[in-house]
Amino acid sequence: MAAQLIDGRKIAEQIHLETKLRVEKLKIKGIVPGITFIRVGEDPASQAYVRMKGKKAAEIGIHSDTIVLSENTKQEELLALIDRLNADTNVHGILVQAPLPAHISETVVFSYVNPHKDVDGFHPINVGKLMLGENNGFRPCTPAGVHELLIRSGVPTEGAEVVVLGRGNIVGKPMTSILIQKFKNANATVTLLHSRSKNIEAHCQRADIIIAAMGFAHFVKASMVKPGATVIDVGVNRIEDKNDPRGYRLVGDVDFEAVSQVAGKITPNPGGVGPMTIALLMSNTVQAAEAWAH
Ligand code: GUN
């Protein structure tokens, strides 16, 4: 393998150490950072994600509660619960795990969370602050985690050609918003590609950094990558695998085996972006509690 691995687990642990110190400072002031997770329905992936987030919160001294609602919960009932948590001074962060059942509007629900408790960074106020380049909002955890990965593994973004694959609200759009800002460690030239884009291969071949978040297994092939480029794999895709006891296995958006022969730096998957999402969620939760303390 030619490429250097970007170890997301190691970088995430470093961030957790920093976050833990911030938690300890808050505790001296009598504040225990608290986050409440809301899960609607029994989607196995969402169950696993919320469990992992709760476990990590406990490890670094953040209090967490998980509220599980049935698949049939009415939107108004979920909004009433969010109202209650918005008013609860022990709750600094509220996270409603996506995806929600089809009869509930994610846009309505995310807009209902108090923007000061919106540790996911999905509220329109926080989306707007990010787009405006204001630093006092919350940034969505996955793209903020990718940004930290780039910074902490020494990948320069100033003037770099970046291709973001995928235009979702959770990763692609906010990733672009972060990297185009007039900030140190941003200032990139970003091309956002999506399912209707033309000449995807040619765009990718020009890129110094490719961030793949389109939800398409093994989409990024070696032929699309410039030698020495950095490749970040955000994808989590299920593919059938009869040899796996679950009947499937999880793979990323990048054909790792082949691309790692060409790239300069690459994230493993798992062990790349996933741990960073959790690290940034913990950091955002502490940011919410710190704002409370002022
Ligand atoms: N589902 C997939 N990613 C996320 C995320 O970052 N936050 C929430 N709330 N749900 C998700």
Structure in a nutshell:
This protein is α/β, with parallel strands linked by helices.
Distance between the termini: 49 Å
- Largest sheet features: 6 strands, parallel
What class would the helix/strand composition place it in?
A: alpha/beta
Mean pLDDT across all amino acids = 97
**Order of helix and strand elements from N to C terminus:** EHEHEHEHHHEHEHEEEEHEH
Structure summary, number of beta strands? 11
What characteristics describe this protein?
single chain; 294 residues; alpha/beta; Rossmann fold; three-stranded parallel β-sheet; 10 helices; 40% helix; globular; binds guanine
Please tell me about this protein's structure.
The protein has two domains: 32-115, Rossmann fold, CATH 3.40.50; 141-274, NAD(P)-binding Rossmann-like Domain (Rossmann fold, 3-Layer(aba) Sandwich). The chain has helices at residues 8-28, 44-60, 75-87, 106-112, 124-132, 141-152, 172-179, 200-206, 256-259, 273-293, and strands spanning 4-5, 34-40, 63-69, 93-96, 161-165, 189-193, 209-212, 230-233, 237-240, 248-251, 265-266. It starts with a strand and ends with a helix. α1 (8-28) packs parallel to α10, α6 (141-152) packs across α7 (172-179) and α6 (141-152) packs across α10. The chain has 294 residues and is an alpha/beta fold. α2 links the parallel β2 (34-40) and β3 (63-69). The protein contains ten helices and eleven strands. The longest helix is centred in the N-terminal third of the chain and has 21 residues, at 8-28.
